[in-house]
Each structure stands twice: as structure tokens, then as C-alpha cells.
Amino acid sequence: MRRKEKIPDTETNGFRRILPDFFAFVLGLGQAYLFKWNTTDLVWSLWLCSLVTGYLTILSILSGGAATGIRMLRQKEIKRTQCLPAILIGLMVGLFFLGFFSLHFCGFHAIHSVFLRQFFPIDGMPSDGFGEAFMNPPLLWALVFRHLLQPYGLFLIPALIAERKQVFFPLIRAIEGERPFKPVRSFAAGWLTETPDTKPYDLGDAMGRPYINVVRMHLLIFFFAFCHILKIESFFIYAVVYSVYFFPWSEVKGWRRKRI
Description:
Elements: H1 9-34, H2 39-73, H3 80-119, H4 137-147, H5 149-152, H6 156-162, H7 164-176, H8 203-230, H9 235-246, H10 249-259
Helix pairs in contact: 1-6, 1-9, 1-10, 2-3, 2-7, 2-8
């Protein structure tokens, strides 16, 4: 008898990594179908996801830096007299980056909302979108909670699942203190870890990820607007767009390459 070939662990882990992305894809598409969302709903849900996931990524990176700093201060080589100056410097640097990216990232979304409001108005939203909150992140978040969280908050669930690695991985990696890749040993751990062939952790890439998502969101919104003008809106169009946003194309491509 021919012995059955055993599937390598890396292949199994690759399939497990894709499962949450499939779940996010089905969940997001199911929400759009169940609630009968139109173009306006899809555009603003994407805007909300870009703001929330991007800002959480920034907070994750800054928190990861703080965790790394705390771990370094616990080293035996560090004297107690050096701790207080290091903590003060770390706080100042962290607060600077938090303030800078809060103003820049949130301000960009506030300006973007002004244009979206003109083409895709929502009942009760100010006529200038969230333009009043430009350079005022707390006001922006207050307006977002007031006007967008209730109708589109559920969409954040599949979005966070799809972006889980970019959002949570910087903090998890800093807490664990693991810079090199280590193989996945559990089913749940595979959902948050990178593949073995990914490049090493790079802070610049991590900080640029929220802005990459903004660019992707812009392209999807332009696509929606184009379909809206041509009056070719349909559930099929939404499914295509959701596949671009949620479907794990890179994971599937890497998985298939390893099987060949």
C-alpha cells in the first residue's frame, strides 16, 4: 500500500493563518447584504475602518516601544540613577510622536471626510463632514462616535480581523521581546504571527502601514464613486471590492507557491 503523505506543519499553519481572513471576508460581505448597504454605507464604513485600524496601529507601535524601553530598564547593566532620565526622555519622545501622528493622521481623515460628505451625505452629519475637527483629534473621535459608530461599528469586527497582524503584532512582538521569527506552535498563535518567509520587523514599514491602508481606501472609494456615477451598483460589485479589501491574496499566493 502507498503510504499517505503527511502535510508539513508549515502548510497546516499557512492554512490556519488564512482561516480568519476568510471569516472576515464572509462576515463583512454578509453584513453588507443583510443590512442592504448602498454605496454611501460602504464608503463611510471603509473610512471608519481606515481611521480606527490605522490609529490603533500607531498606538500599538508606540506601546511596543514603551514595552521595549521598560524591558531594557530592567537589565542589570542599567543603574537606578539612569532610569529616571531614560523614562523622562522616553515619555517626551513617545508624547511627541503620539501628538504628531494624531494631528497628521486624524487631520488627514478629517479633511477627507469633507469631500466624502459632498458626494455621499449622511443624515445628521455636519455639512462640512468632520472638517471642524481638523487639527483637533479629540473632537474628531467625538464626532465619529456620534455619527458613524452606531451604523457602521459592526464593520470594524471583520476589519480588525483582516488587519490583526498589522494592528497588534508590533505590540505583541515587543512584549515577547522576540525580534527573529519563531515557528508557530499553536492554532491561535498562527492567527497573529507572520509567515516564516516574511522580512524582518522594520519600524518604518510598520509606521507606514496605516498610510498604505489610507491609499487603498482611497482607491476603493474612487471605484465606488465611479460605479455610483455610472449607476452600476450591485451586490456583485460590492463582493469584488470586499474581496480586494479582505481576501488574503498574499497568503494564498504564498501558500500555493509552497505546494508547487
